[in-house]
Amino acid sequence: MKKIILSLLCLFLTGSFFAQNLKNDLKSVEKKVIEWRRHFHQNPELSNREFNTAKTIAKHLKSLGIETQENVAKTGVVGILKGNKPGKVVALRADIDALPVTERNNLPFKSNKTSTYLGKDVGVMHACGHDTHIAILMGVAEVLSKNKDKIKGTVKFIFQPAEEGAPEGEEGGAELMVKEGVLKNPDVDAIFGLHISSGFDVNTISYKAGGIMAASQAFKIKVKGKQSHGSRPWTSIDPILISAKIIDALQTIVSREIDLTNEGAVITVGKIESGVRSNIIPESAEMIGTIRTLDYGMQKQINDRMKEMVPAIAKAYRAEATIEIETGYPITFNNVDLTSKVLPTLQKVAGVKNVKEIKAITGAEDFSFFQKEVPGFYFFLGGKTVGNDNPYPHHTPDFSIDESGMQLGVTSMTQLTLDFLNN
Hints:
Blueprint: H1 2-42, H2 51-63, E1 67-72, E2 76-82, E3 85-95, E4 114-117, E5 120-123, H3 130-146, E6 152-160, H4 173-179, E7 190-201, E8 205-207, E9 210-213, E10 215-224, E11 228-229, H5 239-257, E12 265-274, E13 280-281, E14 284-293, H6 296-316, E15 320-325, E16 332-334, H7 336-350, E17 355-357, H8 368-371, E18 376-384, H9 406-422
Parallel strand pairs: 3-6, 3-7, 7-18, 8-17
Antiparallel strand pairs: 1-2, 2-6, 4-5, 8-18, 9-16, 10-14, 10-15, 11-13, 12-14
Helix pairs in contact: 1-3, 1-9, 3-9, 5-6, 7-9
């Protein structure tokens, strides 16, 4: 009996000692994480062009003694940390690309970088928080590398390029990483990812089991009519008018044909281009847009109806029209069993009242490609300053986050890793 009591006491003391060491390591990296975030924010790079970002990440991983793979899916970086004991493999992912947005605020580390996007000179900005994701995962790597003797299994750190989409004519992002085998050798058992949010209160975590973010598909519609003088519309077949009829009809698919008690859905036309002068009815028009769905049956129904409607409407007005719909991103789907297992960890690090279940979001994420291959869990990290009722949205020039929320990101990803591997 004495031996059993002594053994239990040793385990308790060892666990307490480890917990205190871990707490100290997490605290010591907080200032670095903020500094890294500011560096990346000031030096953003567009999708598949994250050359300097990747070099900085790789240099850090190598300094920690982590096995490092570079040029994965063009500019991605993967680190492999093996614990002192064999076990499962968990992957942690951070996206690293910025957006073609010109920053408009007074931050001392504001981006003044420019680049070329679709043939146009643009500003470049981390307008979606990927700079914080990089810094958080670098912090997690540092903490876990100091505690690898306590790790049972292996950790893969995946720094992914081109989450916002590869440049036209290129491959990229999570889909290319999966194709290149990033989840193999060693084979990943589960993957975790996070996204900071300017809309959720700082020091909170938001999650949902099942579909948390929508599948995303881009579509392109081309309408061919007949050109004529603007003063003689009866001699034309007006592609602009026909485009308006098509846009109007597409909205009836969601409002009148889809069972919205199942899941939400969105069809948006984001751009229409036609004509050159006020007094010329042009020959053609082109529009592009996006489809967002949270159910694959609904996605097929919408796709099928769009393909039926577009040419039929054009034909009714004596024109021709074609539609192309990309495969796009899958639904970001949190494995239900994995979600139930990790929830106690999140509640432990953030507090029960600060971990909130949310409804699905119609934004999209290519983290979903990883989740199609292995069980995955994706959650939102609060980045909104308390009391700020009107935060600037993501992908806008004024986007900003509260840096104090990043430490919860480091702590939660670290503890998720340890609990998944060791329990």
